[in-house]
Every structure is written in C-alpha cells, then in structure tokens.
Amino acid sequence: xxxxWNWFRWLYQTxxxxxPIFYDAYDRQRFAGGILTTLELSAAxxxxxxVIGVVGAWLQGSRLxxxxxxxxxxxxxxxxxxxxxxLYFFYFALGSYITMRLPNGTxxxxxxxxSWAIICLSFYAGSFNxxxxxxxxEAVPRTTIEAAEALGYSRLKAYIYIVLPLAFRISLPxxxxxxxxxxxxxxxxxAIAVPELLYVSAQIWSDExxxxxxxxxxxxxxxxxxxxxxYGMAKWERALRVPGxxx
Amino acid sequence: MLSRILAGALAAASLxxxxxxxAQTLEKIHQRGTLVVxxxxxxxxxxxxxxxxNIVGFEPDLAKDVADTLGVKxxxxxxxxxxxxxxxxxxxxxxxxxxxNDTEERRKVVGIVQPDYYASGITxxxxxxxxxxxxxxxxxxxxxxxxxxxxxxxxGEKYGANVIAFKGTAEAQTALLQNNCVGWxxxxxxxxxxxxxxxxxxxxxTPLPVIxxxxxxxxxxxxxxxxEYGRFxxxxxxxxxVSGKIIELEKKWGMPASPWAAKMxxxxxxx
Lengths: 247, 271
Fold this sequence. Notes:
Chain A is mainly alpha-helical. Chain A contains ten helices and two strands; from the N terminus they run H-H-H-H-H-E-E-H-H-H-H-H.
C-alpha cells in the first residue's frame, strides 16, 4: 500500500502533478473524511427529503384549511430563499437560541453544524419534493381514487396503497432531477464549516497551492457520486415500471 | 509559475521606473523636507485613524522616528496590502512600513531592509474561563478558524485540534461568541484591536503563547537596498532592536509582548 502512495510522491517530483491527498498521511485522512462527510450528508438528506415530500404531499391534500396553509407556508419559505442564506440563518440566527447550559454556566449550541446542514438541506429539497409528488398525485386518475373509496379505503389507506405507488412512479423522473441537485447542493455546507468534500479540498489547495489538481479531483468525484445516484435511480425506475401503465 | 513570471516582470519594471526617476531617494527627501511613508490605516493598533482622523499607531510611530532622525517632516500615506509595493515602486512613497511579511517573492519586487523589524504569529482567542493553558490543551477540541489560512493544518496536525473554518472573520467571531468552538485561532497582531471592544470581548483573552512567528520587513525602493538609503534604514531598525524601542512601542499601544521582539532585543543588545 505504501508503494502505491509513494508512487504519487514520485509523480509530483517528476511531473509536478501534486496530489498530496495520496502521499501525505494527514491530507489523505482529511480528504477521506471529506468524502465520508459528503456521503453521509447526501444519504441523510436524500432519505429525509423524500420522507418530507411524501408526508407533505399527503398533508397538502388534507381537507383542513390550516394544514394546507402550514404546508403552503413551508414550501414558500424553503423554496423561495437561497439555500446558502438558509444555512446561515439556521446556524447563526436560530442556532444561537437553541442552546444548552453547562454546569459551569456557559451555554453551548445544542445542534451541531452537520445536523443543521442535514436539517436545512433536507427541508430545502423536501419543499421541492412536495410539489413533485403533488404533480404525481394529480396525475393519478380520479376514477382510480373513487374506486378505492368505493372499496372502503380511508383517505390515508388509499394514499398509501393506491395513490402513492402510482404517483411515485410518475414522480420519479422529476424526483431524480431534484435529488441530483441535492447532492450538489451539499457543497454549500462548507459555509458553516461542515468538513465535506469542497471544504477539505479548499483547505488542501490553500496549503499546497495545487488548485488545478484538486479542481480535477473534485470534478471527477462529483461526476462519479452523481453517476452512482442516477444509475441507482434509473434501475429503481425500471424495477417499478408497471407494464401498460402510461410511464 | 505564473506568479513567478509576474514577479519577475514587476521587478524588471520597478528597476526601469526607479532608474528613470533617479535613485537618490534620500536626496529627494531632504530637498522637499518631507518623508512620505506608506502605512496601514485600517489595522489597529499598527496603523489606524484616531477620532480626529489622523493616522496613528505602532508603525506611524516608527515612521516618525525615521523622520526625526533625518530632521524632516513626516507625511503618512495610507496603503493596503494590494497596492503597498506598487506605491513604493512608483515613488508615491519613500518608505513602506505596512505590516508586510518578509517573503522570498517580495524581496524580488521591493527592497526589504534587514533585519526585520517585527514578527507576527498565531494565537487563540478564548473565554477567560475556558481553562486553556497550552496549545496541547486544544487536542480534540473544536477551534474556529478562517478558511484557507496556512496555519489551520499546523493546529490540526500538530496539536490535534478539530479546526472548524469559516469564510470570514465575522463568521468565526460569531461562532466563537455562540460557543460553537472553544477558541478562535488567528493572527496574534489582530487580537488587541478586537479585544479593545470590551462590550463584546470583555470576557475573552489570548492566554496561549504566540507560535509560528513570521518576520515583518519594511521596504525601500529595490535599487537602493544596498545604497546609502537602504543601509541607513538597516541602521534604524538595528537601533530600534538595541534600544528596546519596539518593545516600548508594543507597551504604548497595549499589544501583548511578542517573544520575537524580545529575542531580537536580547540578541542585539550584547553586540
């Protein structure tokens, strides 16, 4: 393994292509940490934002005016403000109120920067997901829902067993787009010092002045990361296909 | 590579400008009876404006000493990092004392006079009750910093701190005030100015010793570095170290004692 790492030192010495993320133990460790943080952040936000989308879309169809109003307010707030501003708002403004008092009298924040990033980005992508699922739900024929009601399904049961499975299939292409965007948006978390890929890369290129190399590494990694997601989503889309049903 | 080419081009340009203007800066100063010194006007306590708008501080005091020694009047010209070397090359200022690090690249562009007159390092701003006593106490603790700063790696690698770096100083300060980190690691010379705002920072201090010190150089036009003018300035700086003027001015402006300045004083006073 050491021989492999040393090859990159040789590469630097002979060609000038400087990739300390391979030959320098400290840079290697923090870069690996950055990849891991980006993966964790992306995975957590993907799952949470889809859950928010599914629940939000159901609540949007509620007969209660208040519920509808709350959901509409949520969508407008998160969809109409830049995610970077939201991150700053949550971390610096809201975070200063959500604190815990230590025995020695100092108050420390209760929610860490990573948690704020997950919360903020999930709700941000979630607000788009609600609208994406709504589009899917509205595409389910009214007659199908009436048939479910005739069979004695409650609103919730009809949503879970009849509407959602069909709506989900219709929503997948649009959802795909939004989730790809979400993975790329995780780079914004560098603003509140979440040590994800862009953050560690920026620190490494400041230390080593190897901006072009790190830019290329970043590009390749994000293409790969998003590629894996798109591949997975495409497979899922094919697996969920109902033969003869529209999409 | 590009920066090296640029530096080379600048150095070449400076040579032609300086020779065209006539290299006798000392003569020029005596003829007009004024010494024009480029200093910072936005970096408390090194150079800043007092309530009446005059530029005062550590470096203006050094500039005053040079003018007094030459027996001429002093004119201070505010400069910033991005134009200070150009001002000197163009002859807009005769001397530059502007918190500039002495680096290999800059020595090719302006005449950095030896010895260096001051040095800055890094230290940590932390709450008075944080219990931090040495750099090793930072191990495993979160420390706020500025993104891209060269010392982030030192603090992380050597002292095992968990560095959380923000885009700017305002964010890092806010994060420290909200206890997102135990301390903020930054340029030691910036802290006296920040701590002078006691309403916000009354409960904060810089208990850790200054480390990783980098020397600061004052500069004359490059062609005159080894001529009368450059050697005269070399003597001025030497005198500041021997007489303890640097240390005296540190006290005057309420700056924490720099170990580097003390070391220079000790090294030179015996000679």
